[in-house]
Design brief:
Blueprint lengths: L4 H12 L3 E5 L7 H11 L2 E5 L7 H8 L3 E4 L3 H4 L8 E4 L5 H18 L4 E5 L10 E2 L13 E2 L21 E3 L9 H11 L4 E6 L5 E6 L4 H12 L2
Parallel strand pairs: 1-2, 1-4, 2-3, 4-5
Antiparallel strand pairs: 5-10, 6-8, 7-8, 9-10
Protein name: Class I SAM-dependent methyltransferase
Organism: Paenibacillus favisporus
InterPro entries: SAM-dependent_MTases_sf
């Protein structure tokens, strides 16, 4: 996600001026720090969600004060407690079940508040656009969990490698493609089933970035220019 900051995410934030930003998947804070600098400057708030963040959250809370909130839970447990937000960045557990239900929770928030937020998702292309990955396999209901193994993957090959390969240390679905498999599939299934008139914008580099907007969102006027001039 951080590779898209300067040319896409930052310009989109400046154009839309969100007051509350939710970030799913903080990890080492490469994007979190940048979001917090914006929030502190304009008096906005960043709510970070990560069950095991790899950054000094106490120091961040001390420095950024009310601009920062850390929720150490899985996203599907944390999101329902957040009443309203203008933008959400989704870069957590890269599988169909999690992403689809994260988006359904966003939809429920929008129904309560009357505003569908700007949604930014990482990993909409290879390797996890069409393949599930599980950080915590036991958190996914069995009927939605693909057969998986802790083995690596490579472009152009559906089955997992016997040794080595990309992300060989995490739980990857045995095969690519098919129903309810991968981040992009979850996004497409959500958009097909929602009553909101949504548009999906995609960038294909750096594992892919997807941006979901309502068709009449003010951001829809500026986002095509941002994407076309990003060079990504």
């Amino acid at each position: 996600m951080h590779r898209f900051w300067e040319k896409v995410i930052k310009p989109l934030i400046i154009a839309t001026r969100p007051r509350t930003i939710v970030e799913i998947g903080s990890l080492r804070g490469q994007v979190t720090y940048k979001l917090l600098d914006y929030c502190k400057h304009v008096g906005a708030r960043c709510i970070a969600i990560d069950p095991v963040p790899q950054m000094d959250t106490e120091l961040l809370a001390e420095y950024y004060g009310s601009s920062f909130q850390m929720i150490r839970k899985l996203s599907l447990e944390a999101i329902p407690a957040i009443n309203q937000y203008d933008m959400i960045l989704i870069d957590g557990d890269h599988n169909w079940y999690t992403v689809f239900h994260e988006l359904k929770l966003v939809e429920q928030m929008a129904a309560r508040t009357g505003q569908f937020p700007v949604v930014i998702l990482h990993d909409t292309e290879w390797p996890y656009g069409r393949r599930d990955m599980y950080y915590f396999p036991e958190s996914i209901p069995q009927k939605f969990r693909k057969p998986f193994a802790t083995r690596g993957i490579e472009p152009g090959r559906s089955e997992l490698l016997p040794l080595g390969g990309f992300n060989h240390m995490v739980s990857n679905a045995l095969y690519e493609h098919g129903e309810r498999n991968g981040v992009l599939t979850a996004v497409e299934d959500f958009i097909e089933g929602t009553s909101y008139d949504l548009r999906l914008y995609r960038l294909h580099s750096s594992n892919g970035l997807g941006i979901i907007l309502e068709a009449d969102s003010p951001a829809a006027d500026v986002l095509p220019y941002i994407l076309n001039t990003s060079g990504l």
